[in-house]
Structures are given as C-alpha cells and as structure tokens.
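DM from R.C. (forwarded with permission)

"hey, sorry to bug you on a friday — could you get me a structure for this? deadline for the figure draft is monday and I only need the backbone to look sensible"
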Amino acid sequence: QVQLVESGGGLVQAGGSLRLSCAASGSIFSINTMGWYRQAPGKQRELVAAITSGGSTNYADSVKGRFTISRDNAKNTVYLQMNSLKPEDTAVYYCNADLVTYSRYEYRYWGQGTQVTVSS
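My reply, with the result:
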C-alpha cells in the first residue's frame, strides 16, 4: 500500500510565499516522476510542475520564474516552493508520483490535496 501525504497549504496574501511538501510512503520500490497539479473551482486539473528522478523539471508557463519544484529521493519527498503568489494561484494542489511497488506494480498515485488560497 502506498500513501502520498501533502502539507504546507494555507492562506497567504498576494506576493507572499508558501512551500508545499509531499511525502510518499509504503511499499515503494522506486519513484520515477513526481509532480504537482492544481484544480481551481470550476476548472480542470492542470499540471503545475514535475520533476524526474534525475532532476529534470517541467513547469506550466503561468508559474515559470515563481515556483520551484525539488525532491529528496532519500526521503521520497517532493517540494513546491511558491513565491510571488497571485490570487489566480488559488486552488487545491495535488501531488502525484509515478512509482513502482515492491510487487513491481506501476501506477500513478495521488495525494489527498491541500488548499492554497491567495488573497488580493
């Protein structure tokens, strides 16, 4: 069984910063790509940022230069540093991990989501 647990969301004023964390635990053999998605009310879930096991990153155009994704492979944890936050960044943020379990089952797992609210 695998769990992804997120933390670090909250309420912040525009221009402020937040750091999200997501720790994967359980029967994990290896983790490939880890990422962050977000979903605002009435909108589809969208990719925010992703990072491979080798450290290659990919960002949505809307967050480039403001958000930084990183990971600690030893801790099976991915982070999202969010700076210069805007009201339009308000959403539920979900982490995911493409991983292989000890039984060699490959699957994309999701966290439960954490609310980020940016006030103007």
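R.C.: lifesaver. The CA atoms of residues 13 and 119 lie 5 Å apart.
me: no worries. DSSP finds no helices and eleven strands in the chain.
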